[in-house]
């Protein structure tokens, strides 16, 4: 009798968005506390830790991702308005930004070029096949734009989303140690570099450095998405003409 | 009320962005167009900043949280990368390190002597 009730309870709970939503928020809060307590140790990045814990829980409890997403989509949905809100730090930075338009433009173009060229070169050298190469080209662009680009390049959009998110998490984890190793002190330089390669997930990390770093990261993310959407299909068309 | 008003305003801008993106078949998604619209709006009407800042800053304070559902989706499907994983990791990692380094070093070099801080050049944070 008791077991049966528990069973019914479990059936009810696993079908409701409440569990997924509560789990996601609780994991994030715990992971953020751990990150702060560790003195912001890079490998304890809250996104990385939460994702690993949640995947473990889903596997153990045998919950399919689609069921989890039924609840977690309420959090996911907020990405839209949050992206719009990235205009706020950018607006507050506008007076300083206006004085540095040329350096920012040069750094942005150079960064985009190096990112794309090294991605294509290393992908080819590591023997990835044509379709994976086309899917990985846009990996530094924010996921929704990257998927649209992948489609036009002849890649697989869902694979591109995977690459984009892996890149974002990797970039967020390595950003602070790498930039301090290179003695980059300026928060504008840090932010622009983080947002250019690690888009939104990087921008979340950059906002943790300072509002200024977050502003430049959001700027780099938006410009990188816009420029890549125009330039990537042309560049790939020249470099990797479709066979047959 | 303030937060609710700000959240509504952000959603409306995203909506306008989505509509523009689809109508004009722009390659950039609605939220990014919404970002640009909000920036233009604030530049034209600075007094409107308080409408957006309550809800907007609250969302940005926990931007990391919003990526978790998508991140879980990726890790669930990581098995699909069996076989190509080493090449993929090499590509993602190296190009990310290179792109980040080049961007940061160039911008820092070009802005040398023109720091973006309002405070004097010596680093207060280092003390």
% residues in beta strands of chain B: under 5%
Residue windows where pLDDT falls under 50 for at least 5 positions of chain B:
119-127
Taking Cα atoms only, what radius of gyration of chain A do you get, to the nearest Å? 20 Å
User: What distance separates the N and C termini of chain A?
Assistant: 66 Å
Q: How far from one another are the termini of chain B? A: 42 Å
Major sheet of chain B, described briefly? none
Dominant shape of chain B: extended
The counted number of beta strands of chain A is 0
The overall pLDDT of chain B, averaged over residues, is: 87
Fraction of residues of chain B in helices? over 70%
- Report the C-alpha radius of gyration of chain B, rounded: 20 Å
The quaternary structure here is heterodimer
Tally of strands of chain B: 0
Describe the structure using short key phrases.
heterodimer, A: about 240 residues, mainly alpha, 12 helices, about 0% strand, B: about 130 residues, 2 domains, 6 helices, extended
List the helices and strands and how they pair.
The complex is a heterodimer of chains A (244) and B (127).
Chain A: H1 2-14, H2 17-37, H3 46-61, H4 65-77, H5 79-85, H6 87-99, H7 101-125, H8 130-136, H9 143-153, H10 157-181, H11 187-209, H12 211-239
Chain B: H1 2-23, H2 30-44, H3 49-61, H4 63-66, H5 68-76, H6 85-110
